Amino acid sequence: MKKINLILLCLLMLPLFLHAQASSCDIMGDVNEDSEVDIVDALLIAQAYVGLNPTIEYHPCADVNCSGSVDIVDALLIAQKYVGLISEFSCQNTPEPTIEPTSAPVLNIACGSSSALGIFQEDQYYSGGSTHNNSNTIDVSRITVNTPPTGLFNNERYGEMSYTIPDLSAGDTYTVTLYFAETYLTSPGSRLFNVSINSTEVLTNFDIYAAAGGQNNGISQSFITTANTSGRIVIDFTAVTENPKINGISIVTGIGPTNIPTPEPTPTPENSGFQRGPDPSLESISANRGTFATAELTFPAGNGFGGGFIYYPTDTSLGTWAAVAICPGGSAKFANEETWMGHWLASFGFVVIGMETNNTYDYPESRGTQLLAALDYLTQKSAVKDRVDPDRLMVMGHSMGGGGAFHAAMARSSLKTMVALAPWFNSSLTSPSMTNLHMPAMIISARNDTVVTPASCSAIYDKIPTTTQRAWVELAADDHLGFTKSNPTEMRVLIPWMKIFLDNDERYVQFLCPIANSSNISVYKNSCPFVP
């Protein structure tokens, strides 16, 4: 050890004849990139540490002990390896995070930090909030794409706050990635907050502890947005329970890579399907939010239908998600009547595409075609296509949209299920034959509906083959427009149905076979037991 210290002391006295070359390398410890780890590399780090070589700020191969910063310990470790006292570093051969060619970095911010950490610049562009630092050891293994230095999570900005990122191209697409770790609280539900990007809420009741699976686990959440007309992206953090907090922000142009693992294999009857979330209860299925944080995006008309909205869980650790396309009723718009369902369903673990029709008076046949076009867009072209399992899809609609759901189901037998809310048909002109309807089908109607009467819904239910798994639920206190506003009774039966037939989750059968809560339900016909 004395020999090493002497070497370092002597080297510090030498003229500053070397400096760091580039910001990346292939060999851990090789900061001058000569393909060797030697005493010169130790010299460069030691000089930087005492302020004699200001050209070295941070090199991705310099932090050989993965502490999140470069200091004299790194120089000592390099010297130890040079004289043969150690064979490798704790960060040996750790690859530098890379950005996919489809995106380019714009800005990386180490929130709450007064100095840079690797590619993350010091904290900037913020308004409000306070800073805090910690010395916790953070597990970043859950972040498999663009993994940041662990030191990023040892600093934070917390409280009601916003970040306004300037100098972007108005209207251009960007991917915003937020980095979090719960380093203070020790139980789920203790810290809940909301995050909005350019006035669109992307995280609702976000719980870092629950999302990360515990304390001191680093996670990332990515969102696709566009710069506003001023060329800015504004990120707002608002408290629900306890202070919001953020450790890092990364913004890249275009649709950047996200932390999405390989999709799960198709389940077999022996496994538990695609279970998402904790064991359900009557209280949990009756809540207006599930356990998953959600995000929202909009898209324009085209691709065979009139554009619309997409809602999706932000969790990328559980593979891909099942999806549902929802069509509004005649003369109506999804934006006016069904958006209340978007985050609600997404928070239970589904991707939701709420579509607008080409014409608000399109008949059910056309709406069925547009529902399928919406699913094709979602799984093949949308910004979240990689989050969706194309083998677990369903259609749903209200009134004419409900009639359209039947048409779509008859046209595409590969769908897993369908749900019709007060389905309307124009007599024989648009009423399809149910003979070949073999996928599970649910009808939800309203007792006081004078547009689609209980008698007509009963007739539709009776036309569905008895060999098909089916259910008809009549809501006792609603009319035809009861589905166009927040409807807890509807969701109390809809969510278990979707869980059973989209996620193959048998845990939810108990709520429908028999009906677990019959309040506000006047008719319930079914083919129980339901089998995923």
- The helix count comes to 12
Largest sheet: 9 strands, mixed
Structural class of the secondary elements?
alpha+beta
Q: What Rg do the Cα atoms give? A: 28 Å
Pick out the low-confidence regions: 8-23, 93-103, 260-271
Strand order of the largest sheet: 11-12-14-13-15-16-17-18-19
| Number of distinct beta strands | 19
Helix content: 10-25%
Distance between the termini: 66 Å
Let me know the average pLDDT: 85
Share of residues in strands: 15-25%
Which outline best applies? elongated
Provide a descriptive summary of the structure in words.
- This protein is an alpha+beta fold and 532 residues long.
- Helices cover 21% and strands 25% of the residues.
- The chain is built from 12 helices and 19 strands.
- The protein has helices at 2-12, 39-49, 72-82, 208-212, 282-286, 334-337, 342-346, 364-380, 400-411, 427-430, 454-463, 488-502; strands at 104-110, 126-133, 155-165, 173-180, 192-197, 200-206, 219-226, 233-241, 245-246, 248-253, 294-299, 308-313, 321-327, 350-355, 388-398, 417-421, 441-446, 470-475, 521-526.
- The strands form 3 sheets. A 9-stranded mixed sheet has the order 11-12-14-13-15-16-17-18-19, sandwiched between helices.
- Helix 9 (400-411) links the parallel strand 15 (388-398) and strand 16 (417-421).
- The longest helix is centred in the C-terminal third of the chain and has 17 residues, at 364-380.
- The radius of gyration is 28 Å and the shape is elongated.
- The N and C termini lie far apart (66 Å).
- 48% of the residues are buried.
